[in-house]
Amino acid sequence: MIENLDPRQCWDLLQQNAHAVLVDVRTKMEHTFVGHPPGAVHIPWKEAPDWQINPQFVAEVEKAVPDKQAPVLLLCRSGQRSLDAAKALEEAGYQHLINIADGFEGALDENKHRGNLNGWRFKGLPWEQS
Fold it and tell me: Taking the chain, what is the end-to-end CA distance rounded to the nearest angstrom?
């Protein structure tokens, strides 16, 4: 089963559970230049320029998070790629999957800008740039 939690709930879970792992599934450019939560493990679900699903995604997560009972929180820009990645991990046997609803940047506002309505950064949660 895949849970959808808001960014604040996810931050609290990460603080309370030492076994929880946050996996950032965005592209390398997003992770590096847009920013990411401290300690996030970066494993892209899709990557430019072809935007095909990373064929090594599950294997890379299995290497980073071998305990399939550990909480795995998945983050993307707005919550869709992370949900798709969570479904792949569920098929691979992961038991405690959490999609970070609204992602890192959140939904588009009426001016087609992100970061003004919701998301990790909007909530004022810790983040850094590489």
Answer: 33
